[in-house]
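Review form for a predicted model. The reviewer records the input and the model, then writes brief findings.
Reviewer: anonymous (R2)
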Amino acid sequence: MLITMIAYTDGMIEDRYRALLIFVLFTLNNGFSWLMFDPVAGWLEENMNGVTVGQLQVLSSWQPLMFLIMFIPVMKMVTGSDGLRKAVRLGASCEMIGAIFKIIGSLSRNSYAGFVLLHIGQIFSGVGSPVATGCVSALSAAWFNPNERTRATAAAVLSNSVGNSLAYILVPAMTESSSFVCTTVYEFVMATIAAILVWFLFPTQKASVVSGGIVEILPVEGTPSEDKSLRKQLFNLLSVPSAVFLLLIYSWSSGGFSAWVSLFDATYDDFFTESFIGFMSFSGMLAYAAGGLVSSCLTDLYFRRQMKYVIFFCITCNSVSNLLFVALAPNNDGYSLHPSGRAWIVVVTALCGFWNGAAAPLFYELIAEISYPVDEGVSGVAVSFCENLGALFFYQVVSRFYSGQSMSVAYSFGMTVAVVLSAAVRQRYIRSYHMYLQSSQQLASMSVVSVDTPE
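Model under review:
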């Protein structure tokens, strides 16, 4: 029956959309697994042996930490023959194994061994993080035409944030109605579905060709990228000042944002209930995904050569929203500069997420443009590396030096610096220009062949 269903689905959906949908399901579950402990931090501290606030921060830090360990091997894999499919298979399989460890750990919550198994499970989930968030540029470049790539990148990037937001709604609901075991079982079911789809339905990698004056996507059985040294590609990427500026900005705007939102429970637990904090976090992360989808559609249609200005506008609006959040949210003593009620706090949190997410997919595309001929697999993983580095820095450094409202002030200050830094970015669309020249040359060659061919 499974084979019949797979064979039927194989012919239903166009290959590029099938690749995107399967990748979206995988990265959505990866995002869920990253933040599945934060929404029920209080419950875990009370009901699980060995769990403390510090240990919960370590559990949330495993994903960015494993990213730092695994991003080089994933880069090498993605730039090889049919590397994208191999990388997604690795990530989906590790996610499923990690979910099994977490089920056993949650069942053994009264013993210290159960707590250790949660850590092991989160480590396995973290192995897939450089695939889930770092291979989005490679996916869009391999499967989609230039006028569709920003939207494809956005769908792949932002599904991880949708997984984050689902954690804030589903985890408390499942834990309160049953136990944390229910949450881990849900993760395992989703991970198993994703793994089956990846292993049996994820298509072989494609390559762009020109045919009859139209850019099409035709199948090839493992088309390797040019034989380039990974070290040289990284050097070329980091030798472009504008690319470095964008990487630094993204590390704070996206990585810092995810960590900041996930720490709301520790920041505002004295003033708000756990359910309200979960709703705050959910609104921020869901708006993050919505912002990215809106901006990617508008950019593909109207602003394909003005990505820098779109990024500048979005992070400026985000900085203003952050300042509004600081004014509305209670400080460490419970007072607000402008008390306006909880509804406005939720609205402003959503605004922070919307403008932040609106800029997110454009970082991947603009860095791929200005760093060309660096492979998209390398530039995309580098962008995601910086995101995870920013999250890890926020978890392990910022949160230790700043607590309560001071943490929100620190994040807002960092976003103000990011706005200034974005003004120094010089946008260049080298990849698009190269593709235009290549297409023109191939069309000219085909015209010559058709003229020389006897009737």
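Findings: Residues 61 and 412 are 22 Å apart (CA to CA).
Further findings: Strands lie at 206-211, 214-219.
Recommendation: see findings above.
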